[in-house]
Amino acid sequence: MKKYSWFLLTAGLLFWTVGCKEPVIDEPIPTFYAPATTDPEGGNWRPILFQSVADVCVSQPEPVTSDAYKTELIDVQNGAFALNVEQIDAVNYWAAGGVLRWNQIARQLIAKYNVTPGYNDATGQTVPFDPNKPIVGFPAAARILALLSVAQYDALVAAWHAKYLYNRPSLARQGVTPRLPVADLPSYPSEDAAVAEVSCQVLALLFPDETNWLIARAGEHKQSRIWGGANVPSDIKAGDEIAHSIAQRVITYVQNDGIQTLPDVNNAWEELRRSASYDVKWVSLAIPARPPILPQFGTGNMWFSQSDDFRKAPAPPATTSPAFQSALAEVRTIADNRSRDEWRIANLWADGVGTYTPAGHWNLITEDLIRQDRQNELRAARTLALLNRALQDGALASWFTKYQYFVPRPSQLDPTIKAATEIPNYPSYVSEIATMSGTASTVLGYLFPSQAARINEMAAEAAVSQLYGGTQYRFDSVEGIKIGQNIGQAAVNWAKADGAK
Amino acid sequence: MKQLSKGVVQLALWLLLPACSFAQGLVDGFMRGQDKASFALTYSQEAYDTYYAGTTEVRNPNLGTITTQSINLYATYGLAYDIDVIVAAPYIRTESSAGYWQKQEGLQDLSAALRWEAYDWKFDGVTVSWLFSIGYTLPLQKYVIDAPVAIGHGSRNLDGRTLLHIKAGAFFLTGQYGYIRRGAVDLDRVVNYYVPDQVNPNIGTKVNVPDVTDLIIRSGFSTKHFYVDGWVQKQTPYSKGTDIGPAIPYPTNAIGFTRAGANLYIPLIKTFGLTGGYSTTLSGRNIGKATRLSGGFVVGL
Question: Whole-model pTM?
Answer without folding.
Answer: 0.92
